[in-house]
Amino acid sequence: MSRAPEFIVLTDDAVRAVGGTNSRHAALIEDAFGVLLETPGGGVQLSGDAKSRAAAKRAIQSLASRADQGLEITEADVRVAIGQARTGAGTAPGGLPVGRRGQVAPKTPAQARYLKALADHPLVFGLGPAGTGKTFLAVAHGAGMLLRGEVDRLIVSRPAVEAGERLGFLPGDMNEKVDPYMAPVWEALTDIMGVDQFRRRREKGEIELAPIAFMRGRTLAHAYVIVDEAQNATRLQMKMVLTRLGEGARMAVTGDPTQVDLLNARDSGLAHAVSILDGVEGVAVSRFSAEDVVRHPLVERIVRAYEADAAQNGGPS
C-alpha cells in the first residue's frame, strides 16, 4: 500500500485541537494508528500506510468538526474519536441544545445509541457506571424538548438515599433539603440553559424537583421526567414512579445497578424493572460500560479495576 504523506486542510482552531497541548493529542493519534502526524501549517500531514492513514483521518476529521463548532477538545474526546474511527461508528440525531461550552453532542457510540433511544421511545433506561454521560444527556434531551415547547415541564426525581442520611435530618424547606441530592442535575441544567433561564423556569414551575416519595398519586402529563440514581429506588417506588406517566409524557430512568446504597440491595427497583420491561413496546434499555467513561482518563481505569475485583470475588462492584 502507498505510504505517501497525505495533507488534510484544517482551520487553525482544528489544528490546535488535533495537536493538543505539547502535542499530546497528536501523540495519542500517532500511537493509536501507527502514523506520523505533523502540523506544517494550514492543516495536518499524515504519514503511514493507507489503511492507518484512513482511520487516523476519520479521527482527525471528527475532532476538527467539534473544534469548528467551538467545542473544547479534551484527551477524553480524542480517545473517543479514536474509538469511533476504529469501529466506524457515527453520531446520534440532532435536536440537542447548545450549552455554555457549545453544541451538546454524543462522544461515544453508546451515547449516540442512547440519544436515539431517547428520541424514539417514551421510556428509556440508561444503565452504567459514573462518568458515562447517562444523566447529562437525559437532562440535555429533556431541556431541549422544554426549550422547543414539546413538553410543558421538566421534572427531576431522585431517591434521597446518600450515605445513610435522611431528609428529615437536614435543615430547611423541601427545596433546601433536596437540592444537595440534585446538584449533578442542576449543574447540567445551568450548563445548558444558563443560570438566569434555569432560575426563571424553575420559579415558574416549568422545572420541578420531586423526590420519589412525593410522586405518589400524581399523573404527569406533557412532561419530561428524569429519574436519576434509580438504583436507590425500591421496587415499590420504581413501580409507582413508572406508572405516573400521563398523556404526552416521556421518561428517562438512569442509574448504576452495581452502586446500590439501600440497606437491602436486593430491594433495588432498577435492575428488577429492566428485567421485566426490557423488550416491552415503547421501552428501550441503553447500557454503558467503562469504555464510555468521558471524565478524566483515570476514571475509566478505576471503573475497570472495580469491575475486575467484582468479577474475581463475586461481589458488587
Task: Please tell me about this protein's structure.
- The chain is α/β, with parallel strands linked by helices and 317 residues long.
- Helix content is 44%, strand content 14%.
- It is built from eleven helices and eleven strands.
- The protein has helices at residues 12-19, 24-33, 50-68, 75-87, 109-120, 134-147, 174-193, 195-203, 235-242, 269-277, 297-313, and strands at residues 6-9, 36-38, 43-47, 98-99, 102-103, 123-127, 153-157, 207-209, 223-227, 250-255, 283-287.
- It has a six-stranded parallel beta sheet with strand order 8-7-9-10-6-11, with helices on both faces. Strands 1-3-2 form a three-stranded antiparallel beta sheet.
- β4 (98-99) and β5 form a beta hairpin.
- α2 (24-33) packs antiparallel against α3, α6 (134-147) crosses α7 (174-193) and α9 crosses α10 (269-277).
- The N and C termini lie far apart (46 Å).
User: How many E-type strands?
Assistant: 11
Strand content: 5-15%
- Neighbour order of strands in the largest sheet: 8-7-9-10-6-11
**Structural Rg:** 22 Å
List the uncertain runs: 89-94
User: What is the molecular shape?
Assistant: globular
